[in-house]
Design a protein that fits this description.
The complex is a heterodimer of chains A (about 270) and B (about 80). Chain A has about 270 residues and is of the alpha/beta class. Chain A is about 35% helix and about 15% strand. Chain A has a single domain (about 1-130, about 195-265), classed as Alpha/Beta hydrolase fold, catalytic domain (Rossmann fold, 3-Layer(aba) Sandwich). Chain B has about 80 residues and is mainly alpha-helical. The chains are: A alpha/beta (about 270), B mainly alpha (about 80).
Chain lengths: ~270, ~80
Amino acid sequence: MRAGVATVAGGPAAYLSVGGGGVPVLLLHGFAGDRLTWQFNLSALSSRRRAIAVDLPGHGGSTPDVGSGLVSDFAPWLVEFLDGLELPRVHLVGHSMGGYVARELARLAPERVASLTMLSSAGLGTPFDLGFLRRAMAPADVAEGCVCAERLFAGPSPLIPRFGEVLHAQGADPVRRAGLERIVERSFAAHADGGPPVDWSAYPMPIQVLWGREDRIIPMPPADRLPPAAPYRVFDKAGHLPHIEAASPVTAAIRGFLDSCDAARSGPSDPLS
Amino acid sequence: MDRNEFLLALDEMLELDPGTLSGDEALESLEAWDSLAVISFIALVDEKTGVVVEGEKLAKAKTVGDLLALAGAPVAV
């Protein structure tokens, strides 16, 4: 495993990288999260390829500058990040806000995106809990942070106290908090009750959608909001964090999808397939 | 990989002196046991045994002995 910081014109990008080779997979965390949200998935995804988790602007160890606060503006920053790491083409996996960012990156640079996995994703034009975002970015104390953390999970979890501490510490940092507030107001506030549907014809790559059945932050979307014919897998007993709550089956679903996309691209006549 | 080898590998991973860990230690007492260590632990077990540790179970681990059990190493001496 390697922890690094890539020099990107829009501001430094902190990342973790595990494994090597293959078509790499780039993992994008959700709002108020960071690259460590993938702690249970990163190594397991690296068995056949390099797996990279990056902190988005305003999060973790990356630049605190969120620019306009528009999630779509993170996409060109990520293109620079891919250039910096000399990654011509990657599989994208995005959770929640990271799914929204992944979709924007796929639209901006479809030739760079081998596949798109949207996990409990924002940016599908479906309603979400805006009040939760506002509470989670600035809990008054650790106890309120824990209440926010509880809402992310479908049931009790030993991880909730730690999540609560992290949310509170983050909210106590004025720079971090200002960045999160800008993202919420510019990217999310106007669409809490639903936004325009996505024109999926602009996305030529294979797409899959994964969701927790008991998600209280972004409830499961109706089928008409999803990409036509895309695999749509729902995980029982999982809330808004299926990659943590149902880490093994979610990781297996991602691995299987990425492997199938690679096999389909190399074709049946490829002697290495 | 036997129990002692796994403990030594964990010592190295957590940047502890060889022989530090015995298996009884509470994970919350180990400063170096954090999310990065979780990633390294899953990679270590995969590399040594070919087993992918289930994150759901790892989240519930409380002691170094629990880690050994997840790694498939004998828990008892």
